[in-house]
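Blinded run. Sample ID left blank on purpose so nobody reads anything into the name before looking at the predicted structure. Input follows.
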Amino acid sequence: MSDGALPPQDKEMSLVHHLLDLRNAVTKGILAILVLFIALFPFANDLYLYISEPLSRFLPDDTSMIATGVASPFLTPFKLSLVLAIYLAMPYLLYQIWWFIAPALYQHEKKLIGPLLFFSSFLFYAGGLFAYYVVFPLVFGFLSTAAPEGVTVATDIALYLDFVIKMFFAFGLAFEVPIVVVLLIITGMTTPEKLSHARPYIVVAAFVLGMLLTPPDIISQTLLAIPVWLLYEAGVIVGGMVLKARGKNKDEDEDETEATSDQNEAANKRTKSSETTTEPEFDDRYADQLDEDWDDSDWDDTFDQIEAEFDALEKNQSKQRKNDAGPSDDDEPPKK
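Blinded prediction complete.
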C-alpha cells in the first residue's frame, strides 16, 4: 500500500488526546450554535411570524393563533431561535464531526468527505424548503377546510412550532436518501441492480415513512413518500455512474501499468541485446567463411605445399651449416 493511501496519523494516539480533540470539536460546535442564537434571538418574533405564515393565510379573518401556556409567548420564540440556530449550524457541526474522525480515515476516504458534506447539507435544507413552500400550504389548506361547521380554528403557537420543527427535520432527513443509497453502493454493500429489483419494497417503505413522520392525512404522507421514492431512484442512478467512473479509472490505471511493464520489458531486451552484440564473434564468422570458401582437397594441397616448403628450408639450412664448418678430415690431400 502506498504512503498516500495510509492514514495521515499512523501512530497511536492516547485516550487523553482523543478526549481533548472531542472536547475541542464539541466546544466549537456549541460556540457556533450560541453565536447564531445570539444573532437570531432579537428577531425571534419576526421569525415566528414568517414561520407561521403558511397557516395564518388559511385562518379566518377574525381569528389568530393563541398561547395557552403562561410562558409560551416567551419560550416559543426562544425555542424557535435555538432550533433555527442548530438548523443553520448543521454544516459546521458535520464539519467538526469530520475533523474529529479524519485522522482515522484513508486518503481515498477523505476525498468523499467534501462532496458528502456539501450534498448532505444541500439536500437537508432542500427538504426544509420543500416542506415550507410546498407541503405546508397544501396540508394547512386541506386541514382548514376539514374543520366541522361552527368550529373556530385557533392553533396554539407552541404546538404549531413543534409541528413545524418535526416537519422540517422529517423532510430534511428524508431528502438524505440519495446520500445513503450512494454510500451503500460505493462501499460495496449493495449494487444498483439489487436496489432496482427492490423498488416495490422501497415504494411501500416510503409511504410507511410518510405515515410515521407526517400528520395523519393522505396529502402530507404522499408529499413525503413521492420525493423519497424519486430521490431513491436518483441515488441509484448516481451510484451507478460513480461505479462506472471508478471502473473506467481502474481500467486506465491497468492500461498504464501494462504499458509501463511493456516499456520496461522492451528496455530490458534492448539492454540484453546490446550486451550480446558487444561480445566478439570474429572466430565463428571467420571459421564459417573458411568453410564456405575452401573444400577438403584445397586444404590437403595447402598442407602438402607447406610441408614441401619446410623440407626445402631444412635442406638449405643443412647445406649452409656444412659450408660454414669447412672441409672435413677425410677430404684433406695426402702427404708426400
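Unblinding after everyone has recorded impressions. Confidence is low (pLDDT under 50) at residues 1-8.
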